[in-house]
Design a protein that fits this description.
about 350 residues; alpha+beta
Length: about 350
């Protein structure tokens, strides 16, 4: 059972966490509504569609800013403890600064585990529905690229002709063992193009040694063939980079499919690694926030505390973004791209804990 002071700290932290979360959720809804209204203004949709889209997209956006919510929650908690002089009262019960921060650290990790296992999976599924609806409403809904166990599949339209493209692997700017089925607007087969190697760097593909079957006649062409599509390597890569639409189980499945296809699964691995370290990140950020609060005088205004927390949040965000970018580009090992920022903050936290425990 929890002791009275433990219950007090836990309840105080959770109440402030809920308050800060609701504030950020409201801001996400307001900003998201403006964006969706702008997107839908020229479309024939109902009045409620932009707001429905906003609600679908809001949870995953909120998940992405949870680290800063934990940082601010800890600041609000300690600001109240300082303002009401409750910290001195807790110390008379035999607590020291380290004991109080340890309780907050464990709360943050517990909430973080719930966020990753429950909240993230729900939010990613809602994001998936959001992306599907946006795709149906946009002008690009006739284009599609996806990875399955059988390989890379692309649905495209050029003029009135429809293309169904299947490739067994993708590497750099090339797709291999590719089959292109071209249909007319009534889905009558026009021709089939086969090739072991196609350069997809640009929208104008270069098909090497194409084998073309048309009207039951097959021709082997030795010269490279130019083929115009709406896809290129960068566009395909961007489509696959939206990993936030997949829950944890789907991410593992997609990682296997990518590896089977020969497509880089680094971004998925980094995303999974970041998810697995999310609870620890929440805990460390709570410690960092506590260190900031102890490092400032009790007479500082709430605005100064929030400003300091905001500046720290921005610095941490760009450090994590910088190392993640290096990991995605292959300039540093994947594990290092995720764990190094956590290691830096852990060292700062340990040094800070040693100092503030003497206060």
């Amino acid at each position: 059972m929890f002791k009275i002071y433990q219950k007090y700290i836990i309840q105080n932290f959770i109440s402030k966490f809920i308050l800060v979360t609701l504030i950020f959720f409201s801001l996400v809804i307001i900003m998201g509504s403006l964006e969706e209204i702008s997107f839908s203004k020229d479309l024939d949709v109902s009045f409620f569609t932009p707001y429905f889209l906003t609600l679908l997209n809001a949870p995953i956006t909120l998940f992405e800013i949870f680290p800063f919510i934990f940082l601010l929650t800890t600041q609000f908690l300690f600001y109240d403890l300082f303002k009401k002089d409750e910290l001195s009262l807790l110390k008379t019960s035999g607590l020291n600064n380290f004991s109080i921060i340890k309780i907050i650290f464990l709360i943050a990790i517990t909430i973080g585990i719930f966020n990753v296992i429950i909240f993230y999976n729900i939010a990613s599924n809602l994001k998936f529905y959001y992306s599907n609806i946006k795709n149906d409403l946009s002008n690009d809904n006739k284009y599609l690229a996806m990875v399955t166990k059988s390989g890379l599949w692309i649905k495209d339209e050029i003029g009135e002709n429809k293309l169904i493209i299947k490739s067994s692997s993708i590497e750099d700017n090339f797709i291999s063992n590719t089959l292109i089925n071209e249909f007319d607007k009534n889905f009558n087969l026009i021709r089939v193009i086969q090739s072991k190697k196609i350069d997809i760097k640009n929208n104008t593909w270069i098909i090497y040694d194409p084998i073309i079957t048309k009207d039951n006649f097959t021709n082997n062409i030795k010269e490279p063939m130019i083929f115009v599509t709406n896809f290129n390597y960068e566009k395909i890569n961007n489509i696959f980079s939206n990993v936030s639409t997949l829950n944890i189980f789907e991410l593992f499945d997609l990682k296997k499919d990518y590896e089977r296809l020969g497509y880089s699964s680094v971004e998925i691995f980094i995303h999974l690694l970041k998810l697995s370290t999310t609870p620890l990140m929440y805990g460390i950020l709570s410690i960092v926030s506590a260190i900031i609060m102890f490092g400032m005088t009790k007479t500082n205004s709430l605005l100064i505390h929030i400003t300091a927390g905001f500046l720290v949040s921005v610095v941490i965000y760009y450090i994590m973004f910088f190392f993640t970018s290096l990991g995605n580009s292959g300039k540093i090992p994947v594990l290092l791209s995720v764990l190094f920022p956590i290691l830096i903050m852990s060292i700062i936290s340990i040094i800070g804990l040693i100092n503030i425990n003497e206060k």
